[in-house]
Design brief:
elongated, 5-stranded antiparallel β-sheet, alpha+beta, 7 strands
């Protein structure tokens, strides 16, 4: 608590909204706070605010950051950044719970030290990643794709007609 009191403004002084949301650790940097305000991602008491807006105790601050909306009520004004436990005492968090994280198994990860994947392993990884349809006709690996019969300079084709083929000719 002493840290929050030391970081607070003098009697009658105000605190900028961009500075306050940075000090209570709702965002990572003060410049990100100013950018969020300019972009319309910060609302105080339902109104869009600029970075220099003076926040007061009792204000409702809505912040949209990193895909999540935070709704907090200001309990204490602080100007300097403090530790997370102290910062949490400076506001009442009324934010909706974050969306549940989806647990998805990583597709195509191999154990270290197993060497290069075989062709079978590679096809299995592509199937898991949803790339199985890319090797069919007309796709990148198909006859009309790279390496198909229409490609110039490929190996295995007939040589140029103006150049003799074979050794020493």
């Amino acid at each position: 608590m002493a840290a929050a009191e030391a970081a607070g403004p003098a009697a009658g002084a105000t605190v900028r909204i961009d500075s306050w949301i940075w000090a209570v650790r709702l965002i990572k940097t003060r410049s990100q706070g100013a950018t969020a305000c300019r972009g319309g991602h910060v609302h105080v008491n339902g109104e869009r605010v600029k970075p220099a807006y003076s926040v007061r105790v009792g204000d409702e601050v809505r912040l949209r950051n990193e895909g999540r909306e935070r709704v907090v009520i200001v309990k204490r004004l602080i100007r300097k950044r403090v530790g997370a436990p102290v910062a949490a005492q400076c506001y009442v968090d009324n934010s909706p719970p974050p969306p549940p994280r989806e647990s998805v198994a990583p597709a195509g990860l191999r154990d270290p030290g197993t060497g290069r994947p075989t062709k079978r392993d590679r096809r299995e990884m592509e199937r898991l990643r949803g790339m199985a349809g890319l090797g069919g006709p007309g796709g990148p690996g198909g006859p009309s794709g790279p390496g198909g019969p229409g490609r110039r300079g490929g190996s295995g084709g007939a040589g140029r007609a103006d150049r003799p083929s074979g050794p020493g000719q």
